[in-house]
Structures are given as structure tokens and as C-alpha cells.
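Page 42, continued from yesterday. The earlier attempt failed because a stray header line got pasted into the input along with the sequence. Redoing it now with the clean sequence only.
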Amino acid sequence: MAAEAPPLTQQLVRWGWGVGLVLTGTGHLTVVREEFRSQVPPWVPIDADDVVLLSGAAEIALGLGLLALPKERRRMAALTAAFLVAVFPGNIAQYRNRVDGLGLDTDGKRLGRLFLQPVLCATALHAGGLLPGARRR
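This time it went through. C-alpha cells are written below.
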């Protein structure tokens, strides 16, 4: 008996995350590379450009995994949520240091971005059916 497909909302969110991560990762490597560099906190012990390149590559890999490996959607969704947790200190540093970038050019927008992070994590987990009460297939 074939496994039933996950709910449509999970599939749509998985596709949205996949495409979004590939596009964002590509931006890290190309047209918005400099803006991402300015957002790397000064306490990170790696060259800012290397951080941007590595995080962009990670985003592309995660996005492609979400798109191309539907049977691994739980694992890819968990990795995506973990990635979002890992970059959260950079979001905090952007707020605390008042660094403009990627449309976050006011304290209010930067603060709002901090509160968006848990929502992003939850949607990533939803994409893999990992939230409590989710149908897991």
C-alpha cells in the first residue's frame, strides 16, 4: 500500500520554503552579497564574506533538498528550522547594532524581524509535518 501524500498545506509550504531558500541563497552568492556581509555580527570569528557564501550555499542545499527529496521532507524541514535558529543571533545583532539591510532600515522593522523568526521556524516545521498534531505520512 502506497503512503498517502502529506496534506496540501504541508506540500505548499515545503515548496514555498524550497523555492524561497534557493532564491535567497542565490542572492547571498550574487546580487545582495554585500548587504548580507554588512549583517554578519563583528563577533563571528570567520570572514564576513565567507559566512555569507557558506550560509548561501547552505540555503541553496536546504531549498533543493526540500524540493527534490520529498521522502526526506521531515529531515529537511528540521534542518531548515535548525538553520533558522543558528542565524537568529545575527538577527539580534542586526537589531542591537542598528544595521540597515534588506529593507530593515528602522529599529521597528528590525525588532519585528526578531518576532518573525519563531513564525518562520514553525512554518519550516509544518512543511515537514513536525508540529504537534500534524499528520505525518
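Notes: DSSP finds five helices and no strands in the chain.
Reminder to self: strip header lines before submitting.
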